[in-house]
Amino acid sequence: MLATRTLLGDIATQLRAQGRALLVFHLFFTVLATAVLVPLTTWTLTSLLHAFHQQALSNAQIADMALSPLGLAWGLVALGLSFLLIFLQQSGMMRLVAAPKPGRYRATMNTLWQIGRRFPSIAGLTFLQVGAHLLLVAPFVLLIAYCYDTLLGDAELYVVMRMKPPALWYFAMLGGGLALIALWLQALLYARWFLALPALVLDRLSPLQALTRSRELTRGRHARITALALTFALGVAVLPVLFSILFNSLASPLISHLPDRISLLIPVMLVYVAAYTLSIIAVTFLGVAANSLLVANLYRRLGGGMLSIEDSPAPTQSGWWAWTAEAVLLVFALLQAGWVLSDFQLRDDVTVTAHRGSSMAAPENTLASMRQAIQEGADYLELDVRLLRDGNVVLSHDRTLERLTGQALNINDLTLEETRDIDIGSWFGDDFSDERLATLDQVIGLAHGKSRLYVELKPTPGNEQALIEAVVERLRRYGIADSAVIASLSPTVIRDVEEYAPDIDTTLFVQFLLPGALTSTPADIIGLRHTRADAGTVSMVHDSSRELHVWTVNSARDMSRYIDMGVDNIITDRPATLIDLLTERASLSDGELLLLKLRNWLHQ
């Protein structure tokens, strides 16, 4: 009854019979998601940030917002709307294959009308299912977070992965066990309600009746249904990736043999990207449609009814809707290709910032890591600075030395003399046991004339102005104020720096950057977590006459992608890797570089 071969045969037959109508329906929902859901989500999130009087968000601000009643409500609604769109699309495709006259485009119009009439029921089922899954997983997420906080505290991930303390393995066992239990329960619930949507759409049941009907039909078959659904979903997810690899492996050699003339390369690339875009849309459509038809056919095979849809009045020229949709699709592909190529810059112009020095080769924020970064050729040395009790400025990311030394010493309570015997390098390796807290004066002397400084302020409540004045005084005394950058995660601190020393460039580090955020800060540079950066963000920041710096980028693939995106500075723990990459790219011809940028775009 659940034989995969016959199921695939039925799906293939239905795709051949109703392929054009299904494609029109798919394109309609693709446009709906692009034109309505994404802007609506952005607008509501922006409104939420205005309600919190925040636009550029730090970690703490994100946590406060996300855990607030308003933030939780927004997250639930955004998630629910996303799944509602998926459910609506699947519902329409199920109805289309149940139509008695395959191949007629008017069925698409009829289906849209019928799905609109059933919208309240589909929405109710969506929020019941999504809500149940969230309620089921919530306790496990809280338990895993509690285990992490208890065992590992606020230690940074890269430090934990390098040191691999015993607590990491305890957390891996506890967290992994909890995650497996949560996944098993989620899979069980998913299989039990797997057929609720076709029950609601094809047999006109209410949401609760559909859930009950699905439970009856799937009883005793949970394992087989889960295995089949997951296998199918995995295939659907992998298909576009495999296609991209195949497309790239076949087309790239052809392009690489073209003459190195931009006048020829640009139109060829335009066709290349347009063909790729159309192909990916087609592959994605096949995956979405096949998955919807799988659910409908399973429902029929396990005893569910199949609604006989009567043709209700529809436009007599429904075929024109299909042709119009396909023409729009072609235009979209050509525009997409044009946008992609217009974003490519043939030559790379990005500076390299060593995050806490070369912190993968030597312990962070030490003279050893700064010396290593200078040797590797970093343009900037990024360092975190704090104020000692005696007024000296030293390098330290954390408020205390517990992570580096095991001693819970508060840096603001120490004098420079008291730090002379504190070893902050042995945690990284025995070769660095002589490393002590470095002062800002030492780093300035070490880097002068070799690398510029990127100073991130780490004040404690009450000493913000004192730290600002101490850092600015040193930068001016050594004559490097015009080449240095002062950074902070705090919009207030950046505003204070701009007022006290308007001649020094400032960077505001943020987690998110939404439209309108740039009007709220006087910062000269925006530093953005690299996973939040995209071409639109780069353009938005550049349009405000600011630079965009991304942090912390450590893989060569990501580095190459952000170079192509047009960011101005990449902050990395591996400056040598980035410098080698830039050197290699500088040796390429225009044609080779254009092809490389295209490959990076395909692999995004």
Features:
single chain; 604 residues; alpha/beta; TIM Barrel; 21 helices; GlyceroP-diester-Pdiesterase_M; PLC-like_Pdiesterase_TIM-brl; GP-PDE domain-containing protein; membrane
Strand order in space, largest sheet: 1-2-4-5-6-7-8-9
- The Rg value, from CA coordinates, equals 29 Å
> What pattern of helices and strands is seen along the backbone?
HHHHHHHHHHHHEHEEHHEHEHEEHEHEHH
Main sheet attributes: strand count, strand direction, barrel closure: 8 strands, parallel, barrel
Number of H/I helices: 21
Q: What is the straight-line distance between the termini?
A: 40 Å
The structural domain count equals 2
Estimate percent helicity: 55-70%
Would you tell me the overall average pLDDT? Answer: 82
> Beta-strand level of the residues, as a percent range?
5-15%
Overall shape = globular
Q: What is the SS-derived class?
A: alpha/beta
Q: Regions with pLDDT < 50 over 5+ consecutive residues?
A: 307-318
**Tally of strands:** 9
Assembly state of the chains shown: single chain
Would you write up a description of this structure?
The protein has 604 residues and is an alpha/beta fold. The protein has 2 domains: 340 residues, no CATH class; 252 residues, Phosphatidylinositol (PI) phosphodiesterase (TIM Barrel, Alpha-Beta Barrel), CATH 3.20.20.190. The chain is 62% helix and 8% strand. The protein has 21 helices and 9 strands. Strands 1-2-4-5-6-7-8-9 form an 8-stranded parallel beta barrel, surrounded by 7 helices.
